[in-house]
Design a protein that fits this description.
By secondary structure, this protein is of the alpha/beta class. The chain folds into two domains: about 280 residues, Aldehyde Dehydrogenase, Chain A, domain 1 (3-Layer(aba) Sandwich); about 190 residues, Aldehyde Dehydrogenase, Chain A, domain 2 (3-Layer(aba) Sandwich), CATH 3.40.309. About 40% of the residues lie in helices and about 20% in strands. The protein is built from 15 helices and 23 strands. The strands form seven sheets. A seven-stranded mixed sheet has the order 14-17-18-13-12-20-21, with helices on both faces. Strands 9-8-7-10-11 form a five-stranded parallel sheet, with helices on both faces. The protein has a three-stranded antiparallel sheet with strand order 5-6-23, with no helix packed on it. The radius of gyration is 23 Å and the shape is globular. The model has no long low-confidence stretch (mean pLDDT about 95).
Length: about 500
């Protein structure tokens, strides 16, 4: 969709980019009711980008009131599906038309390389918006099998007002994985983007309004978790809440639901993905390049990052030589440079968290064979070297806890059974990758892995047509695919005696 060749091209877009700092409620940009704002800091250089409205419960009340009013009026919820599709397709096109600006906003706000913002993020968001737009008029209801004197109808209806709380690692994509199917189903939405990365959500809300999404249907409330986030979770007039983020916060939303109106809660709470390489791996070089590039993609701030590399002993030395060589080609740099492969950590807190885990790994007895240090101190941002720990045991904290940074833990195993046991020995179950040329082994291992996604001889395979979500404490429900619509609709059974 988009490709910046030079830094000059990036700067030309940056110079014309408008940074929005107000909340978007009922079709208007407004200050927080309190008037409070917070500094939005760019991780690339540690400098303040702009002041952003710090929303709290009064702002949530306003947004929910507007969302409920328009939902009950049927302006969007009762719009003919084919007409709703037209608006959603215009929304998708508006996003595509402004992709360069949105990619630059994503990079300066979150720290990911501009090459990733353009090469992955904007394309994936456009695909998501366009795909769910087409679903507006393709969801059929059902007629139950019954005798001639009765009629059983099973209809799918919009659930109502949806709260969406999304993370900072893929601000646009994670938001649209929630917003697009929710809107397609006819709901009203209140989106709270992470406080570290609010800029693209606010700009996208503006584009949605310009495309014809009615006032009150799509609202964006920047703010902090304990204020805006908790207020959304506790609100008595929100029908469903969808969340991507840490397990700690996900569990709070489950509690908020029980303390309020039992709103539906759907969670995606991270992972500790095992990348399993067996002795009969067909192409060791490809597997090594894949695990390395996947681990350090987006600075390791990825819920499916292959942070546990599980290698069968027979190829361990050869394989790790290839991995270290691949890692030596990656370094952290200014994310606005089109040649940068790894950018900045999202903020100082996350950088310090990752550096603390690196110290923990050393204290646990694992060996750093690559990286391990803060980088680019002269730039002023939050950078960490690609880091590899070898000699890791699966019971170490660096193997069990989600670090969410560029830290790879390498675990040796002796056979297939130990590899499967090690992979499943985790509170998480989001994804797994298996590398073998034996088709039977691939099938058998995939079935035994307690993960929502399993990729064989590849990593992060699939597209918008495939459901995404996890087992165990990685969450419930699914994003992507037609299955995502289940979260945003209610099933109604209507039985008629004729």
């Amino acid at each position: 969709m988009l490709d910046f060749k030079t830094r000059k091209e990036v700067d030309a877009v940056l110079d014309t980019t408008h940074l929005i700092g107000k909340a978007f409620i009922n079709g208007n940009f407004v200050d927080a009711v309190s008037g409070e704002t917070f500094d939005n800091v760019s991780p690339r250089d540690g400098k303040v980008l702009n002041q952003v409205a710090s929303c709290d419960s009064p702002d949530v009340d306003l947004a929910v009131g507007a969302a409920r009013k328009v939902f009950e009026a049927g302006t969007w919820s009762d719009m003919e599906p084919k007409e709703r599709k037209k608006v959603m397709l215009r929304f998708a096109q508006a996003f595509a038309d402004n992709a360069a600006e949105l990619a630059v906003l994503e990079t300066i706000d979150m720290g990911k390389p501009i090459a990733e913002s353009t090469g992955f993020d904007v394309g994936a968001v456009y695909e998501c918006l366009q795909w769910y737009a087409e679903w507006c008029d393709k969801v059929y209801d059902e007629i139950a099998p019954s005798g001639p004197n009765s009629l059983g109808m099973i209809t799918r209806e919009a659930i109502g007002v949806v709260g969406a709380v999304t993370p900072w690692n893929f601000p646009m994509l994670m938001s649209m994985w929630k917003v697009a199917p929710a809107l397609a189903a006819g709901n009203s939405v209140i989106l709270k983007p992470a406080e570290q990365s609010p800029l693209t959500a606010l700009r996208i809300a503006e584009l949605a309004a310009e495309a014809g999404v009615p006032d009150g249907v799509f609202n964006v409330l920047p703010g902090f978790g304990p204020t805006a986030g908790q207020s959304i979770g506790m609100h008595m007039d929100i029908d469903a809440l969808v969340f991507t983020g840490s397990g700690e916060i996900g569990k709070k939303f489950l509690q908020y639901s029980g303390q309020s109106n039992m709103k539906r809660v759907w969670l995606e709470c991270g992972g500790k993905t095992p990348f399993i390489v067996f002795n009969d791996c067909k192409d060791i070089g490809e597997a090594a390049e894949t695990v390395t590039n996947s681990m350090f993609f987006n600075q390791g701030e990825v819920c499916v990052a292959p942070s546990r590399l599980i290698v069968e002993n027979g190829i361990r030395n050869e394989f790790m030589s290839e991995v270290r060589a691949a890692a030596s080609k990656i370094s952290a740099g200014d994310p606005l440079n089109p040649d940068t492969k790894m950018g900045a950590m999202v903020d100082e807190n996350q950088m310090n968290r990752v550096l603390d885990y690196i110290k923990i790994g050393e204290n646990e007895g694992a060996e750093i064979t690559t990286g391990g240090n803060r980088a680019n101190l002269n730039i002023g941002g939050y950078y960490i070297e690609p880091t590899i720990f070898e000699g890791v045991r699966n019971d170490m904290r660096i193997a069990q806890e989600e670090i969410f940074g560029p830290v790879l833990s390498v675990i040796d195993v002796t056979d297939v059974d130990e590899a499967v046991r090690t992979a499943n020995d985790s509170q998480f179950g989001l994804a797994a990758s298996v590398w073998t040329k034996d088709l039977s082994k691939a099938h058998q291992v995939s079935r035994k892995l307690r993960s929502g996604s399993v990729w064989v001889n590849c990593f992060d395979g699939g597209d918008i047509t495939m459901p995404f979500g996890g087992y165990k404490q990685s969450g419930n429900g699914r994003d992507r695919s037609a299955h995502a619509l289940d979260k945003y609709t209610e099933l109604k059974s209507t039985w008629m005696e004729l």
